[in-house]
Amino acid sequence: MDARLLARLIDERAAALVLYARQWCTTPDDVVQEAFVKFASLASPPEHPAAWLYRVVRNAALTAARGEARRRRHESAAARPEAWFAPTDGRLDGVAASAALAALAGEVREPVVAHLWGGLTFVQIGELMGTSAGTAHRRYLEGLAELRRRLRVECPNSSTLN
Description:
Distance between the termini: 76 Å
Shape: elongated
Structural class: mainly alpha
Radius of gyration: 29 Å
Number of helices: 7
Helix content: 55-70%
Largest sheet: none
Mean pLDDT: 86
Number of strands: 0
């Protein structure tokens, strides 16, 4: 590839190519740079270098735009709070329970979820969290008490906590 041709194309076309790419994506400079890198790696220049660059920039900008849209969808989905519970027969308000569970500190939420829904023992939870079984149990009880407070639910029988 002739370095003078590449330099001339960059001088003459780079700004216009950035403007062209900007209509599709938010990273037009990167797209144009990649197009020039591809151009420089060609064994011989295409018959119409400017047209070739515009086609490559357009394709890359559209690809970048699809990636940006996909990222935005994933980020939006990740930002939306997921319901922790499926709708039930009315004994549990899933929305309120999800909010209450999400509001717990992680150190007390983890043993609650691991024990109630995961079926893990307190020894297993302690190993998982890097604490003793007694600490895991204490955090579990703290989590249940906080959930009851947030959901305004009385403890039916304190002997069922163990």
